[in-house]
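Quick entry between incubations.
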Amino acid sequence: MKILFATPECAPYVKTGGLGDVSAALPATLAGLGHDVRILLPAYQGMKVSGEVGDGLDLPASGPWPAAQLVPVRVEHGITLLLLACPGLYQRPGGPYVDAGGRDHPDNALRFGLLGRVAARLGTAQTPLPGWTADIVHANDWPCGMAPLYLAHERLAAPRDATAASVLTIHNLAFQGLFPLASADLLGVPRRWRGIDGVEYWGQLSMLKAGVQFADAITTVSPNYAREIQTPAHGAGFDGILRARAARLHGILNGIDTRLWDPQQDLLLPFRFGPGRMQGKAQCKATLQARMGLPAASGAMLFAVVSRLTAQKGIDLVLAALPRLAGTGAQLVVLGQGEPQLQQALQAAAQRHPQQVAVTLGFDEGLAHLVEAGADAFLMPSRFEPCGLNQMYSQAYGTPPIVAPVGGLLDSVIDVDADPARGTGFVMAGADAADLEDAIVRAARLWREPQRWRRLQANGMARPFGWQDSAQRYLEVYRLALQERGGSGPPR
Ligand code: ADP
Ligand code: GLC
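Done. Structure below.
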């Protein structure tokens, strides 16, 4: 199959969260299975990509968009990146979505409208890549949400089979790509698709809704989240439209990139380790304690957080549970960045407990690996979690996770008290601070029983979290999308 994987972020070139990891690993796995995969990604400022660079293809100015170029770069694992170069839109300070001050780029509708537009084009006879039209346009999250709509539009004028089938993956329903409804003019959304059956969402235009309404198939990143988002409690306002499209909605659990996240081979670690040879893990713990300025006490249990610091991640619960955690004599390291109040509260906690709590603010891939390796247990009390990757990384690194009973966390962690033989972590009974405290206390107790703790670690390290099975599920969805292409959705 010819697959265009359109995404606003892709590790190691640009990453703000798990979508970056998925955008690297899933295409590589699909390519390994013999498919022809190209990744469409904006060329942001400061991005370093090495590989065999092909000739840039001109994309003439059209509608509100300036002229742009598509630059193919052949990188490792048989993957071609198609860098979407449009300096006026993408070459500027800040991240993919926000400026250096943390505010949304004011022209995000245009920036990501172009990404959707070019993705769709690559699935039609007017493809800018000579001789290459995608069979599948796989759009990720709201920044690519316009692609299915544009493809549906192209299809009106072409035989059904002449355009690619579209698949939308929802990585996080909390980000909906909302813009003034008037942007519909700019983006060229046909009039009849501007209402509630189309892109309109509470008086605004939602790029995510465009994707949900027009994609031939929709996936999200865990089976449990696929169920949750069809309910008012977790649907973030989208539950109704997702229920209406339930027949086309599939939950597929993310995998982890075992080339990068394997403690036996991880080159970012000072010491490597694996099942049955865990000294390296103890050495990583000592290195981590030293690096974070904590006493190198092997007898103090070390808890850890690596996370975007946002309400989603339940960081406030960690703060609320901290006195109890510190009361057990344990230590806590936090690596993250995000909301200023959470950053300040964490720093204040570190000042209150200098022997026990250490915080590093910022984004640091190498340190994230060391934290996963060096910690004894990992905290992830998310309020909602579409999939979550860190709880899988931590299991692979012998660092049992403590997780809230939501989303993909429930699909990927087995509570050790519920199933002592197979358990891999601790699932909180509920989603508040007292539940987190209870789970921390349960973990601290079990840690004092080395034999049982080693069993727990070994169970986690043995789990096959790679991408092979999930990639097969995506291929099944692609086939369904091709079969059903154009068969549903809003009136065309
Ligand atoms: P989300 O995508 O919601 O942020 P995930 O658990 O799916 O959550 O993925 C988060 C990814 O981002 C993981 O690879 C994690 O290690 C990484 N990450 C998050 N914060 C940081 C940070 N401050 N420094 C380095 N890596 C981080
Ligand atoms: C989102 C979600 C996270 C998921 C990631 C990759 O950022 O918040 O749960 O793991 O996307 O799909």
